[in-house]
Amino acid sequence: MEKLRFGLVLIVLCLSTSLVKGGDPILAFEWKVTYGTISPLGVPQQVILINDKFPGPIINGTSNNNIVVNVFNQLDEPFLFTWNGIQQRKNSWQEGTLGTNCPIPPGSNFTYHFQVKDQIGSFFYYPTTALHRAAGGYGGISVHSRALIPIPFDINPADEFFVLVSDWYTKSHTQLRKFLDSGRSMGRPDGIIINGKGGKGDGKDEPMFFMTPGNTYRYRFCNVGMKDSINVRIQGHTMKLVEMEGSHVVQNMYDSLDIHLGQCVSVLVTADKDPKDYLLVASTRFTKELHTATSIIRYTNGNGPASPELPKAPIGWSWSLNQFRSFRWNLTASAARPNPQGSYHYGQINITRTIKLVNTAGTVDGKLRYAINGVSHVNPTTPMKLAEYYGVEDKIFKYDLMKDEYEPPVGKAEEKITLAPNVVKVTYRNFVEIIFENHEKSVQSFHLAGYSFFAVAIEPGKWTPEKRKNYNLLDAVSRNTIQVYPNSWAAIMTTLDNAGLWNLRSNSVERQYLGQQLYFSALSPKRDLKDEYNMPDNDVLCGIIKDMPLPKPYSV
């Protein structure tokens, strides 16, 4: 019966794509989300499996494909996925955060339906409910260029591999959540895993990747971790950086790459060394205790184990900052559309609004909280997106509790943190500048859903308007995640041309869970399908709108 229902869903979707999704091909998946027991770091523990896999299945699509994922929640708790980096054009209904969606109840299912509209690149999905991300439930998303778009590679890769690197805790996600709910930190992770495995590096691990001598391969790296930046490198090989979070980049060579929380990159690696085993190495950055994991790359017909001597990781964050400055947008390459990336001259657009965001840590009633501009976000029982659609937002939250300018207390003065839904109204289609200022001692990483932005600068110190003279206004990489080093600032620029409710969040699981996130509400002046899709018929309803009559839908 369930298979019949799923088939009927697909038929309906196929009939409706000409109206909503442009008639592009559909990729359909059925996922069963369950618990299972495995030992990523040698300790048996409960993890979240998708179709009995950890990590979950890779979504391997092409620009403009429609992705249909029927998720069966077989856990004992409500559950949601978000699709990190997929812009969900006109469709924040599919974003899968607690601000946009009611979670899927236990024993129930929900079908996500979204289009990877005008996007290419490397992304990933993960759970946003409770602290499920600490139990896995993540996987890769690769979006390829359409056949008519030339790919700016000298050599077509013989194959490609997804490499999901993550820090990992041996404590259960329920125990870690209890720590946070009681006002404590999660503490330090216990190790690193690569595609769900710790990798002992003793030569006894099974090979994870295979390369044929003379061929070139694409490796898609994503840091899907919870707390730490991670450096990746391959024994004896250099990596040619070709793509970063949906943008083709200038193809520089690197011995190693820092990948901060939530970030994804693609590199090309040529099998041009002696045919034997080599180690892919991932290790933590900016931590007192260094954690390292390895996986084996085996040359086909190779003879000999990998060297036990691992290539060393860089030291300090100034090296990492200099690497960031070496990243450049490939202005002549085409991405999802035939026109070159550089035909969009972002540096010539007038800024209409500057929003400066300061991340802080503090306590409320003796419990640890994290804030942005003095507001620590709390998810209401009715998602804010649904409240807006039903016209009852005034009963759920207040707009603009957070101001565009903020100076945290200096010295020993304690910051007053407000606990509330943090929703900022922005003007649809305005071009904005967002400044991230990090006064803390650890590297931060932030993701903006619904958009890509130009990462125009990262510098030590505090931001002032005079710093704009140092912006890269020509070939900054268009991406969706930005790191901010200790006592430093970062500047991004973007056009808010995607109507909906969009999450800006810390990529640290602890910080995100304890309030370091906000939502931008970019409402179209008209309830028009040209700007935003209607709430899906199958949307899960909860909170005060559950039994309310449906509002008048958007029209063309």
Automatic annotation (TrEMBL):
<dbReference type="InterPro" id="IPR001117">
    <property type="entry name" value="Cu-oxidase_2nd"/>
</dbReference>
<protein>
    <recommendedName>
        <fullName>L-ascorbate oxidase homolog</fullName>
    </recommendedName>
</protein>
<dbReference type="Pfam" id="PF07732">
    <property type="entry name" value="Cu-oxidase_3"/>
</dbReference>
<dbReference type="GO" id="GO:0005507">
    <property type="term" value="F:copper ion binding"/>
</dbReference>
<dbReference type="Pfam" id="PF07731">
    <property type="entry name" value="Cu-oxidase_2"/>
</dbReference>
<dbReference type="GO" id="GO:0016491">
    <property type="term" value="F:oxidoreductase activity"/>
</dbReference>
<dbReference type="Pfam" id="PF00394">
    <property type="entry name" value="Cu-oxidase"/>
</dbReference>
<feature type="domain" description="Plastocyanin-like">
    <location>
        <begin position="33"/>
        <end position="146"/>
    </location>
</feature>
<feature type="signal peptide">
    <location>
        <begin position="1"/>
        <end position="22"/>
    </location>
</feature>
<feature type="domain" description="Plastocyanin-like">
    <location>
        <begin position="403"/>
        <end position="524"/>
    </location>
</feature>
<dbReference type="InterPro" id="IPR011707">
    <property type="entry name" value="Cu-oxidase-like_N"/>
</dbReference>
<dbReference type="InterPro" id="IPR011706">
    <property type="entry name" value="Cu-oxidase_C"/>
</dbReference>
<feature type="domain" description="Plastocyanin-like">
    <location>
        <begin position="160"/>
        <end position="301"/>
    </location>
</feature>
<dbReference type="InterPro" id="IPR008972">
    <property type="entry name" value="Cupredoxin"/>
</dbReference>
<keyword id="KW-0732">Signal</keyword>
<keyword id="KW-0325">Glycoprotein</keyword>
<comment type="similarity">
    <text>Belongs to the multicopper oxidase family.</text>
</comment>
<dbReference type="InterPro" id="IPR045087">
    <property type="entry name" value="Cu-oxidase_fam"/>
</dbReference>
